[in-house]
TrEMBL record:
Homodimer. Its EC number is 1.5.1.5, 3.5.4.9. NADP(+) binds at residues 178-180, 244. It comes from the Bacteria. The gene is folD. It comes from Paracoccus rhizosphaerae. Residues 18-133 form the Tetrahydrofolate dehydrogenase/cyclohydrolase catalytic domain. This is Bifunctional protein FolD. InterPro entries: Aminoacid_DH-like_N_sf (IPR046346), NAD(P)-bd_dom_sf (IPR036291), THF_DH/CycHdrlase (IPR000672), THF_DH/CycHdrlase_cat_dom (IPR020630), THF_DH/CycHdrlase_CS (IPR020867), THF_DH/CycHdrlase_NAD-bd_dom (IPR020631). It catalyses: (6R)-5,10-methylene-5,6,7,8-tetrahydrofolate + NADP(+) = (6R)-5,10-methenyltetrahydrofolate + NADPH; (6R)-5,10-methenyltetrahydrofolate + H2O = (6R)-10-formyltetrahydrofolate + H(+).
């Protein structure tokens, strides 16, 4: 994808900063244009329903941002807030209603759910065609076998940034640090589909720094503040930092990634900052998935907004 504002800007050090904010803004503009076209030519408005159970502050902010950006793209936004003590049947009943609602093309149940609710049960109750998070076992299976699937938003955003930065990824050695179902595993599947040589590393991997140093592309998704230092990174490697960690520095709360950005910038060829790297891509890709789901459900050609 060619962006109006270049996603690359020189950092104070040697590495190029991959500006996910600029890329995401351009992607949202393309989505809004396609939404307007769907409305004008077919009388269809993509609709995204977000369900929040409980009052987790971070989740509440995230849900509010999703609603704002959904409406800014010209889509219909449906927000459902349920109390923290909501039982499973009440939540599943709401999911079933959204599955049947023809105005809703994407359904997202905000994670994490309260401990008494089974996340897998809830995710798999969503109509796979409306599973814009890509967490339903049906979509997981399609992705794992290289078929057309709804792809989890964060890994999809990472892939778009990598392809914009590097072009073809074929043959590159890639290391994904983290094996979660939300990021690590789907990220590995996407990279395999791009003909990369993929290693999935994790907390029990032996000599993790040595594994990382072999990577042309290093994706950090482990959830440990600044765990990956400069000596873990191959000179000139492209580093995608998925981590968002809150730490206290000089009496203030700050966001940092899983990579020591200041140190890594002296070694890497290109790197995503935190914040401003992968984060903005997640909601942009959620909107892209909702648009795609709307087109598929209505039997319309899928827009080529991410090519």
């Amino acid at each position: 994808m060619n962006v109006t504002a270049s996603p690359l800007a020189e950092t104070p050090a040697n590495a190029q900063k991959i500006d996910g904010g600029a890329f995401a803004a351009n992607l949202r503009q393309r989505i809004a244009a396609e939404v307007a076209r769907l409305q004008a030519e077919h009388g269809v408005t993509p609709g995204l329903a977000v369900v929040l159970v409980g009052d987790d502050p971070a989740s509440a902010v995230y849900v509010r941002n999703k609603g704002t950006q959904t409406e800014a793209a010209g889509m219909a936004s449906f927000e459902h807030r349920l109390p923290a003590d909501t039982d499973a049947e009440t939540l599943l009943s709401l999911v079933r209603q959204l599955n049947e609602d023809q105005a809703v093309h994407g359904i997202l149940v905000q994670l994490p759910l309260p401990d008494h609710l089974d996340s897998d049960l809830v995710m798999n109750a969503i109509d796979p065609a409306k599973d814009v998070d890509g967490f339903h076992i049906f979509n997981v299976g399609l992705l794992g076998t290289g078929q057309k699937a709804m792809v989890p938003c964060t890994p999809l955003g990472c892939l778009l940034l990598l392809k914009d930065q590097l072009g073809s990824l074929a043959g590159l050695n890639t290391v994904v640090v983290g094996r979660s179902n939300i990021v690590g595993k789907p990220m590995a599947q996407l990279l395999l589909k791009e003909s990369c040589t993929v290693t999935v590393a994790h907390s029990r991997s032996r000599d993790l720094p040595a594994i990382c140093r072999n990577a042309d592309i290093l994706v950090a998704a482990v959830g440990r503040p600044e765990m990956i230092g400069a000596d873990w990174i191959k000179s000139g490697a492209t580093v995608i930092d998925v981590g968002i960690n809150r730490v206290e520095r000089e009496g203030k709360q700050r966001l940092v990634g899983d990579v020591d950005y200041a140190a890594a910038s002296h070694v890497a060829g290109a790197i995503t900052p935190v914040p401003g790297g992968v984060g903005p891509m997640t909601i942009a890709c959620l909107l892209a998935n909702t648009l795609t789901a709307c087109c598929r459900i209505n039997g319309l050609p899928e827009p080529e907004i991410m090519d």
